[in-house]
Design a protein that fits this description.
Blueprint (H helix, E strand, L loop, with lengths): L2 H15 L9 E9 L4 E5 L12 H10 L6 E10 L12 H10 L5 E7 L2 E6 H4 L10
Parallel strand pairs: 3-4
Antiparallel strand pairs: 1-2, 1-3, 4-5
Bound molecules: tetrahydrodeoxyuridine.
Tetrahydrodeoxyuridine binds next to strand 1 and helix 2.
Amino acid sequence: MDERDIKKLVEAALSAREKAYVPYSHFQVGAALLAKNGNVYKGCNVENASYGAAICAERTAFVKAVSEGEREFAAIAVAGGRENESIQGYAYPCGICRQFMLEFCDRDFTIIVARSTEDYKCHSLEEIIPMGFSADNL
Ligand code: THU
């Protein structure tokens, strides 16, 4: 991915973050998932009074995409931080989201964790979930 495409995806993640529904954690996360055909699906975290019923931003984006028939993915950008504050650190996907990515993505799928369009890091799926369990193991 070139720098321009990365910045566009990060921008989409930052705008998705504005929609986060976080009355409990006050931690807003946005994600933008790029399909191999160029389509982008945005997602945010959506919490619930029954805390365990919350869904992360990354899985929101995947569920939106897969439910629209998308199956092939190139990259996801993720941006997270406390409500009403500038983004402090890089918000890495949680374990469940990493497992979700493993279901639909190749090991070279790119994860971009961003603080801004100027400050981000790129990783492969293999890097963030090595020795993962997927359909190949069944
Ligand atoms: N969260 C995400 O949206 N993505 C992650 O990968 C980690 C955590 C959300 C879940 C919850 O709404 C809030 O961040 C605090 O854990």
